[in-house]
């Protein structure tokens, strides 16, 4: 019996698409040895046909329309690498699934916003839908959660999942440059999404966290339930002050299940500088998984880039070539429950920075309001100031984030602060 | 259509076996949701029937003979948790595979010594043979290599894979106690294998490395090809001197493929104290994988213990329940090549300690012989000494390990050193 090759149709020939083409071309023998069948490419699709992408595409068919590519009879598996939560990416994915064809995608936005509907469509058509590359680049975290740790009740998933934000924060610290300058650098280096708010607003990382949370807890993906805070307001002064206290600031995601429901948050957080998370440099991602049997598992690797993301895509392609089948989120979509959203209730210390008006008693009023709201102050420091803008740094004793939010509303209502205070959680050790 | 439950027969009710029973009992609903079928236990087997193991076994059948258990008609999957490379573990595994039944095992010794024959038997009978729990406890490293990174040519696998050795080395440093005392402590705590040489001689970790190496490079498992050095000769002085230079000593395994062949080694190595490997405490394991597409992936977690190891066993059980099939070593056993053994050729700095006879010119003779052998000295220090035993510490510039071995033979031949010098590699940063 001759086993037929697995014929890919690849839509999207950016960095990742080119990486996938390269692996298929360079590792043909390896892929056949490992999966028991040849992996080939039938046709590709992208916005521009004539751009030189550094790989030879002459042997493949071309489709202007990814939906047509997805429906081609000679395409067994559709690889979606266009990006964008809706539009052509979603249309082509749906077309492939409706035709009963497996889909491998790196599209976190599409999964985070339409994951439930797509999983239902995939299962109704008995087609695989896999997305290892959508979360944490080359780190096989989806596989670890869905398969490796299938014997565990997962209690918590956390980590640093956006390399661009981590690059900006670590570069600010190493260069001493302010946020705006490093943002421009990152843009010039091509690190930022077309809409940079997806990165620095924490949205991209929030998409990834929502996907992991759904898998971990057997709930429907709930991106709107992620409490999001971007890194735009983290100043170079915050970074220096955090460092003086032995911390570094990371865009940290956390999904946790408690009796109250599912807590999901993605926010800049002070982590101990000498901890594995604190030592994470540049574009590296780290995911920490806690399960009732396994304890804590930590996974670290490149969060983006041609090779790592293409590696994740090909891991999924190989699983499909090997005939593995399982529901997209690890259990049937119909059994995924709607998550009860819970506010982060775990008490933690907070770092606060605010700017006081230059008037007598301002600092005392802030301290009084915080005290009356039950927020206990661990450290407080007022800095020299040139004009009507006295920076104040406060570290609180552990308190519930919701109590702190209410307290800060009270502080703003006094009228003695300029603008909104910034509040960053300090990771519980 | 009703899907039949997957009925386990578990041989071996030590820590791990009890952990597996506990997960099957406590997570019945979770396992069914995730795998699409119930996972149940038909019967168990162990040396002593009447011991109280803290779990209720009254609902299960009992077999004195694990081979009988493996052959029972009402056992669909045989879980081998007895240990030992041969004897009942191997006999029962072979019986199950010969009957076409999948086997999940945590038995690194059996896999390292008989992996090729068992894989051939499994494939001939179309039965799965899975062993995630055999390597690095709860860390899904086998799955990561075989599946997640299937699109990569793997170039290197390294790490700390024996929690007991890591416990002894970190405990020596934190307590200041000599090796012999900490060894006794570890024994009293039940951390050591029945034959402690399996742990401290590096054999257990070497078994794990040989398994990972085979998977990574598509070669037949070759435990005899692992260059082994145990931790028995690492003294508290070595630990202190390494620390003074910014290093910690870890039992580090490394498998690497080069043009010359496969290099496998497991030996105490100086690693930078502030690196992730250097910071690894107690029983934690860390595995570092390098692939041509993914770059470097680091996995960290508990390397042993009831929960973590049972978690790994259950990951394999769930894969089988889900119907995943793949060859034990990731590609058909017949395609695994015999590895060409290569000596470690990569040059690295070395830490040397030797004891000199109290005679004039002894140190000069050592230095001369090393120099004549092409070994260049970075640092050299002679310590105070009470009798005819002057400890000398030398750090070499990078050199090939084989050149150093030859040079040390020359040093011993001078007759000015007492006993054998100890040589530890310093990890290339």
UniProtKB/TrEMBL annotation, chains A, B:
Q: Which residues bind L-homoserine?
A: 193
Location of the active site? 208
Its top-level enzyme class, in one word, is oxidoreductase
What Pfam families does UniProt report for this protein, alphabetically? Answer: ACT, Homoserine_dh, NAD_binding_3
The residues that hold NADPH are 108
Q: Where are the transmembrane segments?
A: none
Q: Name one GO molecular function term.
A: homoserine dehydrogenase activity
Question: Where does the record place the ACT domain?
Answer: 351-422
Q: Which domain of life is it from?
A: Bacteria
EC number(s) per entry: 1.1.1.3
The annotated pathway is: Amino-acid biosynthesis; L-methionine biosynthesis via de novo pathway; L-homoserine from L-aspartate: step 3/3; Amino-acid biosynthesis; L-threonine biosynthesis; L-threonine from L-aspartate: step 3/5
Provide the alphabetized UniProt keywords: Amino-acid biosynthesis, Methionine biosynthesis, NADP, Oxidoreductase, Threonine biosynthesis
For this entry, list what GO says about its biological process.
Answer: methionine biosynthetic process; threonine biosynthetic process
Similarity comment: Belongs to the homoserine dehydrogenase family.
Name under which the protein is recorded: Homoserine dehydrogenase
């Amino acid at each position: 019996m001759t086993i037929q090759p697995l014929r890919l149709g690849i839509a999207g020939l950016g960095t990742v698409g080119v990486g996938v083409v390269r692996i298929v071309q360079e590792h043909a023998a390896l892929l056949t040895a490992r999966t028991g069948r040849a992996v080939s490419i039938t046709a590709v699709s992208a916005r521009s046909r004539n751009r030189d992408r550094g790989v030879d595409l002459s042997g493949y068919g071309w489709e202007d329309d990814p939906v047509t590519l997805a429906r081609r009879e000679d395409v067994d598996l559709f690889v979606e690498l266009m990006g964008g939560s809706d539009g052509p990416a979603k249309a082509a994915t749906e077309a492939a699934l409706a035709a009963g064809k497996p889909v491998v995608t790196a599209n976190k936005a599409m999964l985070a916003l339409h994951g439930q509907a797509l999983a239902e469509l995939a299962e109704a058509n008995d087609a695989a839908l896999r997305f290892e590359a959508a979360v944490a680049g080359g780190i096989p975290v989806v596989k670890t959660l869905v398969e490796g740790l299938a014997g565990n009740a997962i209690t918590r998933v956390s980590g640093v999942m956006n390399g661009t934000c981590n690059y900006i924060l670590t570069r600010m610290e190493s260069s001493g440059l302010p946020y705006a300058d490093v943002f421009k650098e990152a843009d010039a280096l091509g690190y930022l999404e077309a809409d940079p708010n997806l990165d620095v607003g924490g949205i991209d990382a929030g998409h990834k966290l929502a996907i992991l949370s759904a898998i971990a807890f057997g709930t429907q993906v709930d991106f709107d339930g992620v409490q999001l805070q971007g890194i735009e307001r983290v100043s170079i002064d915050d970074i220096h002050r955090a460092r003086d206290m032995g911390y570094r600031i990371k865009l940290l995601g956390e999904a946790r299940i408690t009796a109250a429901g599912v807590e999901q948050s993605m926010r800049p957080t002070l982590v101990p500088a000498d901890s594995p998370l604190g030592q994470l440099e540049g574009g590296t991602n780290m995911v920490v998984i806690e399960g009732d049997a396994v304890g804590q598992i930590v996974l670290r690797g490149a969060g983006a880039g041609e090779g790592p993301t293409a590696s994740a895509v090909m891991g999924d392609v190989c699983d499909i070539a090997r005939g593995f089948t399982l529901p997209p989120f690890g259990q049937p979509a119909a059994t995924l429950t709607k998550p009860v959203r819970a506010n982060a209730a775990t008490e933690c210390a907070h770092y606060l920075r605010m700017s006081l008006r230059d008037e007598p008693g301002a600092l005392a009023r802030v301290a009084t309001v915080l005290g009356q709201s039950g927020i206990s102050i661990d450290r407080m420091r007022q800095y020299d100031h040139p004009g009507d803008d006295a920076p104040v740094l406060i570290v609180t004793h552990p308190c519930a984030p919701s109590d702190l939010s209410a307290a800060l509303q009270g502080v703003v209502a006094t009228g003695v602060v300029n603008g909104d205070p910034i509040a960053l959680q300090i990771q519980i050790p």
